[in-house]
Design brief:
about 290 residues; Helicase, Ruva Protein, domain 3; binds S-adenosylmethionine; Rossmann fold; two-stranded antiparallel sheet
């Protein structure tokens, strides 16, 4: 095989294996070498690093990642793609795992496969599990060098939204917890097979150098964020009161005031730092009650 991914060979292998695209698995494969190289190059990491890919499909992005970086581990849920990947990829620095990424033991995989290497994540994500995949990556607390993902264009806007804007939501805060999200470029539907209905965009999330926090702290923060956005039209007070039932409404109102927020504020106006302060106050009130 040469310096370029052999799309013709991939197409033949898909046909020979009787492959049909599964919409429910978000199977839209990229077929443009220029775009693939740009995504692979966006990890912003050095050649000695490792890359974790989620959903390699027929292996095109995997191929370009393996050209750039020391090792690529790609996790693909669809066993029908295993013979295809075996035929499209022959680089020795690639390992394919036939697993559902949502069930993968991520800590175990990183330790076993990357052994102290710096690791980035790079993926053209299946749209139907974009959020759970990113939440899993962030919740793991693993300090990836970067997370570069291609997602639907409007989802990319949500990732990069500012507090108070209509696109701002729980996922924005989760990603802010990991680092800074930047929208890099847009990719039109004609660069995929089959063509999706909407445009896609590539987003890079890089760690903001915050101190690593204990898993319990992350869990608490994420619980407060999830509660705040669980009912978007509700005020923060009502949204929190329906999750933290052990605390009365007046007590939650007191916490909101103590944090310096207006009584009728909504969750979408709070920044990550605001949520951190709020989570500290909520969980110290809960702890005081159980003492
Ligand atoms: N990387 C390829 C490309 O860019 O052409 C394929 C991207 S396609 C948008 C998403 C891929 O993710 C598909 O191959 C699909 O089978 C796979 N996938 C879907 N759900 C998955 C999951 N839970 N775990 C691992 N792979 C998954």
């Amino acid at each position: 095989m040469g310096d370029e991914f052999d799309f013709g060979r991939a197409r033949r292998l898909l046909e020979e294996n009787g492959f049909s695209f599964r919409h429910d698995l978000g199977q839209n494969f990229l077929t443009n070498a220029g775009v693939l190289k740009k995504i692979a190059g966006a990890c912003g990491t050095d050649r000695g690093s490792g890359v974790l890919e989620i959903g390699p499909g027929a292996g095109s992005l995997t191929y370009y990642l393996a050209q750039e970086y020391r090792k690529v581990v790609a996790v693909e849920i669809d066993s029908r793609l295993m013979p295809v990947l075996a035929g499209t990829l022959d680089q020795t620095n690639i390992k394919i795992l036939n697993e559902d990424f949502l069930k993968t033991d991520l800590d175990g995989l990183i330790e076993r496969e990357f052994d102290g290497m710096r690791v980035s994540v790079c993926a053209n994500l299946p749209y139907y599990v974009t959020t759970p995949i990113l939440v899993k990556l962030v919740e793991s607390g693993i300090k990836f060098e970067s997370i570069v993902v291609m997602v639907q264009s409007e989802v990319a806007d949500r990732f990069c939204a500012a507090p108070g804007s209509g696109d701002y939501g729980a996922i924005t805060v989760f990603l802010n917890y990991f680092g800074k999200a930047e929208r890099l470029f847009t990719v039109s539907p004609d660069k995929f097979v089959p063509m999706p209905k909407v445009s896609s965009a590539v987003v890079r999330i890089t760690p903001a150098g915050k101190p690593a926090s204990a898993p319990e702290d992350r869990e608490r923060l994420f619980k407060v964020v999830t509660a705040a956005f669980s009912q978007r039209r509700k005020t923060l007070l009502n949204a929190l009161a329906s999750t933290f039932k052990g605390l009365g409404k007046p007590e939650i109102a007191g916490i909101i005031a103590k944090c310096g927020f207006r009584p009728d504020i909504r969750g979408e106006r709070l920044s990550l730092d605001d949520f951190s302060r709020l989570a500290d106050e909520i969980f110290s009130s809960i702890a005081a009650k159980t003492e």
